[in-house]
Amino acid sequence: MQVLSSPLSGSLLAAAAWFAIAILSLIPAGNAFFARKLAFPLGMLAGLALAASGLQAIWLASPEQMTLPLGLPELPFHLRLDPLAGYFLMLLGSVSAGVSIYAAGYFRDETAGRLALIALEYHLFLASMAFVILADDAYLFMVAWETMALSSYFLVTTDHKLPAIRSAGFLYLLIAHLGAIAILLCFGVMNGGQGDYTFDALRAAELKPRWATVAFLLAFFGFGAKAGMIPLHAWLPEAHPAAPSPVSALMSGIMLKTAIYGMIRVIYDLIGNVRWEWGMLVLVIGTGTTLFGVLYALMQHDLKRLLAYHSVENIGIILLGLGMSMVFVGFGHPAAGALGLIAALYHTLNHAVFKALLFLGAGSILHATGLRNLNNMGGLIHKMPQTAFYFLVGALAISALPPLNGFVSEWLTFQTALQAPILKNGVVRSLLPLFAATLALAGALTAMCFVKVYGIAFLGRPRETQPPARSSEGDQVHDAGLMERFGMAWLAAGCFVLGLFPTSFLLMLNRVAVSLTGQGLREAAVQSNWLWLVPIESERASYSPIVFLIVILCVTLLTFILVRRFYHGRLRYSEAWGCGYSELTARAQDTADAFGQPIRHVFGPLYLMKRRMPEPDDPAPRFSLKIYDRHWYWLYLPVARLAEYVSSKIALLQQGRISIYLLYSFLTLIALLVFVR
Amino acid sequence: MIDAPGIAFQVLQSVFVVLAAPLLMGWANQCRAWLQNRSAPSILLPYYTLAKLFHKDVVIARNASALFHVTPYVVFGCMWLAAGIVPVLATDLPFAPAADIIALVGVFALARVFSALAAMDIGTAFGGLGARREMLIGFLAEPAMLMILFTAAFISGSTQLNTIVETLAYREFAIYPSLAFAAVAFLMVLLAENARIPIDNPTTHLELTMIHEAMILEYSARHLALIEWAVAIKLFAYMAIGIALFLPWGIAQAGDWGALPLALATLAAKLALAGAGLALLETLLAKLRLFLAPEFLSTAFLLGVLGMLTHFLTLG
Q: For helices A426-457 and A276-298, what crossing angle results, to 10°?
């Protein structure tokens, strides 16, 4: 029992359990019985255990540390659990629990070989993420980080027979490694040549301001590549649609968050001395990420690509909170800085919950209908009512509508921006509210995007081109299975809990903020009770989602009863109004592309569009429109061409004759003998 | 301040706003008729229309989902909640801390998302068209609205409408240049958000130019009545927000029964002026093309930003 009472051992045990499940999944016996029936439910239990340990760790008085005699000789693994790590472990455990139980249902039709591999990679992926969060030295951190990248790469390329998926996987791996190199260099810079790579040593190292900035830039862009911030986001919209849906949910919901974890860990904890100029850079990139993410999401008609672009957007929102926090901390206002950090961390958890939910919903649609293209869907609410409900919860949550969870964290971000008057620097002071305005714009655009998704996929009538279902239970489109529904219900409940009881999470996050910035929220905020969310003082701002929800429900119910009481409930069914035509065709409905048309009109210059308008005398007129990501053309393709050019020059060295290679070795030896004495 | 008089005031205000909202609509219509040299309908016409609609049988398309059925109630509920939060008759209402101005914008957004979803539920061409346009106006108006509210929040150091009103109403008279910018911007947002000319025409019968009306084409009878009523409450609430931000004088405090008649009288006077002003604007202006709406609303946004910057400049 001693072991279980310590959160660090508890979480280590849960991570080890995932590792064990991964290995056991390889047992081929009985049509991969273990992987099919036990692996994912057990993985869910381990996730819950991990979440419990993480929750416990947030309230630890002092961080727990442990050294594992694994790894290289003289270089053991150091583990450490503090409130920040505890919070992210809780996120990992609780969100992955929902995804795992969903996966138990989702993967039931796979063949034994594929299933065993998926279960192996899946649980290895989870375990490596736990170790990323637990790591207390750069060595273990990088090992876990790379294991995470590789296992997710293999998960992305599950359907490796399709060339598109292979190239998506390659792009993912490439950007993941560019990021990893930057992170590695960042650890090197922070280390300053003393040879000890434990985080304790990195924390203690005094960096010159210039080197601290270099370390910050490396960490920001290194982790940013994993998080999917602009302009390093290109892998997200490729990799997420390629992966099986539960894997997309894990990657988007949790893996991107490990990058946020790394950013916060390095910037606040290891480097320390946060500078406000860094915060401004984070804010500028965060704003760009938010806007580009949502604007490109609006242009997508592939559901999973669309969700991937929304992940980009939400990372931008998290960066906005983080950037504001860094600005405040840099100017010496730790209380306001704590609020920004709390907003960012809250949104991290919120996004994990609702984005995982939405990806799972997309998976259920894909499973039931075989469709990913919104333009072929329609009317699914009649065939998949339960999935439709859960998806609606997720859509309302991501659109930042009260009283669900997305609203709370955006509200906290707004409150942080409204702290701007305490700053002395006039320019920064007037810029902060503008960053908040872009957040408002992004929130409203997200709402538009999810009206589009929900309206087109679930509402309306089926589009004509809808192909027959490819499910195993006959050709009828069906609702998600029990396990899948359970996973979605778990996450949807999370959206409600996080939205309705924000104060308990605020207090929890206050612990994290105290452990990082040394100061938390003001007394008035900490003493706020569960009903009223008061981040600063009650005269300044308050929000009570429970009262909000109760009033809305009561008023709505009252209206219903009054209308029925004083009038009647008579109802007739009839055809929809056909605008004077006798028959309505389903093709008259908006498509996903049509819905985005006003956005293309308003934000036209931001897109790279190739439009083909038919000529007036065209016998078979067709209109086609393609939208490309501009970043490909100004960043990725030039870099790719440069890399090709450089490697073609270097290829001159390769003559293919052994004598030449021997000559190279000889020259190298001579050079070494000259330089190394 | 949760005590008996406070709650009485809360209930009184919520019911008052819901009942009085169609009257404001009727008054605005009457003024417009006069200005356009028509003989005006009765000021009570909106009530008669609502009663007529409530008595009719609902006709619903066969493929309507549950969402379509609940949306009118949800929209009405959201507006009712807004009516309870905005300080119309009194400040310091017990429910007011449940939502500040940002949450209030969220309430309106919630109602908008539900109406847009319901519009797409039947699967007609106009439903999708209306939903798309409504969301376009929505995402343009929301940042502008927040900029205006931020300006007010910076002046009073709070996002609570209560505190804002109390700061502005009870402190000695001062002219805030930032509020002047915000007021103009707010007027523009009000017109756009409430589907009035020049953004939308509430009396149009031409589907192709519709925004809000296109969304509710499929609704009938009590559902339509609730939506129309919610529209009236929304207009009332927006005007009340405008009054609270820019002309807050004369409002009572919750529980202060003596100040209530004065508060009612000043409110009636302000709203009568606002309604007449709205009618005047709608008579003078023509409806803009849909794609001029972004310019209109980005002007509002820029005015809001200017207001905020002016506040920081005058702050020194």
A: 20
